[in-house]
Amino acid sequence: MTKLKIPVAxxxxxxxxxxxxxxxxRSSWISSTGKFVTQFEEMIADxxxxxxxxxxxxxxxxxxxxxxxxxxxxxxxxxxxxxxxIATANAISYTGAKPVFIDxxxxxxxxxxxxxxxxxxxxxxxxxxxxxxxxxxINKKTGKQISACIxxxxxxxxxxxxxxKTICDEYNISLIEDAAESLGSTYKGKHTGTIGLFxxxxxxxxxxxxxxxxxxxxxxxxxLAKKAKHITTTAKVPHKWDYVHDLIGYNYRLTNLAAxxxxxxMEQLPNFIKRKRILAKEYxxxxxxxxxxxxxxxxxxxxxxxxxxxxxKDRKQRDEFLEExxxxxxxxxxxxxxxxxxxxxKDCQCGDLNNSEWLVDRVINITSSxxxxx
Length: 374
Ligand SMILES: Cc1ncc(COP(=O)(O)O)c(C=O)c1O
Hints:
Elements: H1 17-27, H2 35-48, E1 52-56, H3 59-69, E2 77-80, H4 86-94, E3 98-101, H5 113-123, E4 124-129, E5 134-139, E6 146-150, H6 161-171, E7 174-178, E8 186-187, E9 190-191, E10 198-202, E11 215-219, H7 222-232, H8 256-288, E12 293-294, E13 301-302, E14 308-311, H9 315-327, E15 333-334, H10 354-360, E16 363-366
Parallel strand pairs: 2-3, 2-6, 6-7, 7-10
Antiparallel strand pairs: 1-11, 4-5, 8-9, 8-13, 10-11, 12-14, 14-16, 15-16
Helix pairs in contact: 1-8, 2-8, 3-4, 5-6
The structure holds pyridoxal-5'-phosphate.
């Protein structure tokens, strides 16, 4: 007999998902053009308040394109947090740039503005580039340009993004928000992903809404949105029959089949968030009488509670908790290993990572699926 397993996060496809997918199949528009792709983009733009949204095959592709269009070049450096899912660091590597890992805040688990400021002050110089007429931030140790910064809103808890933006503006560093986990989360009333030059979303199977696999790039910049659409669709110059491409493009467009799921999921999103927040409240009450800390939303933020998280006393208690729950068929997972400890990124430059090192020993995700009550 297979053991009952309660997953950390599973999809709710009980709305119009089947209806719209069947509609896409019957229309024979199943590939990368079709009405659902446009409709899904419009729904995301409308929901987040971003002016433009461009659908991609997944969140990693959205990050890759956001980096390229932010001007990140081969041999540049890009700041991010070590406590993130591998995709953030991978996307940086796809551009030929190297990540620089800067600590997170203990409370938000997202990039720390204070650590960012300290590192930039101590480790970089500003220089004016006459040929581009732009201020550049150069790493004193490597001589490389720091061209972008990617904070991540961990588990749907917004980081201190307005402070990070002020610092990035001061150093002329492009700000890309990895909002893969934070659809429905806001910072001072603004949707995450809309504060930086670009925000990127993921609709992977475990996310707040899913298209099986999918992503989205959001921005307020019309020109960049146009370029994003062009470069994610093989950079083909529109023509009735000729195949002319004017750049090295990518085949990163979301399919109409997947977007059909996305439209149905967007209809359900407000209800998903409502239910996730109710579940978080229940967890919060439950853990209030224990020595385990349940991670709650911070000042100025509204969290989607994509994945609920708890903080254990130490690594030993963390491992015991993981062992017992998983043995009992209740899926729990530790937070990701720090990026700078992985073989591909072990030589990357880091700031002081005290908070990340503290959190990685203690944070666990607990079951976070929301099911409709009968
Ligand atoms: C923080 C973060 N960034 C990026 C991604 C990449 O998204 P995808 O799996 O859609 O490529 C994910 C999730 O999978 C994520 O959690």
